Amino acid sequence: IKHRTPLSFGAQIQYQLNIKWALVSGLQYTNLVSDLKSGTEDYYIKNEQIVDYLGVPLSLQYQFLNYKKWSTYANVGGQVDFPIQGKLKTSYINNGEVSVDPDRELNGLSTQFSTTLGIGFQYKILNRLSFYGEPSLVYYLDNGSKVSSIYNEKPLNFHLRVGLKWNLSK
User: Fold this and answer.
1) pTM, whole model, 2 decimals?
2) Within 13 Å and on the Cβ side, how many CA atoms surround 170?
3) How far apart, in Å, are the Cα atoms of 161 and each of 71, 108, 120, 132?
4) Contacts of 74 (CB under 8 A, 6+ apart)
5) Are the C-beta atoms of residues 3 and 156 closer than 8 Å to each other?
6) 2 neighbors 34 (Cβ within 8 angstroms)
7) CB of 79 within 8 A of CB of 113?
8) Sequence-distant (≥ 6) Cβ neighbours of residue 122 within 8 angstroms
9) Distance linking the first and last C-alpha atoms of the chain
10) Mean pLDDT, rounded, for 166-170
């Protein structure tokens, strides 16, 4: 089994509690792809497992540096990822000849919970709109799913999130 690097994108909103503290949430789409192969060099079965999630992050952010349009912060929080769909693409390779099965739906997908700790920076583009980058450590809790993913085989991951953040406060 070889797990590819997850692909995620989304948008965040921020509610400023005071000059230093803020609550941050949003929506995040994640695509997980794993390649599974078994057999010999000339005769093998190749599966491509694709799972899509829609996540809702929630974090508490502490701003420790603010200079003109730039700010840096630390954050701690978590995320709930809901499975949208999962499918399995199967190919049979028989001495160079390939036959493909129709895609199958994956059963047994479970909601995925994670915790995160990181630092970040943001650059104010407009009055309420900022571009942000967040290197973070993310730990994925065991969700009991029988579907193998990078999250249950390697629960502690490094993430680099980048995107746009809308500030709800003035």
Assistant:
1) 0.86
2) 0
3) 16, 28, 9, 8
4) 61, 62, 64, 118, 119, 120
5) no
6) yes
7) yes
8) 70, 71, 73, 130, 131, 132, 133, 165
9) 49
10) 84
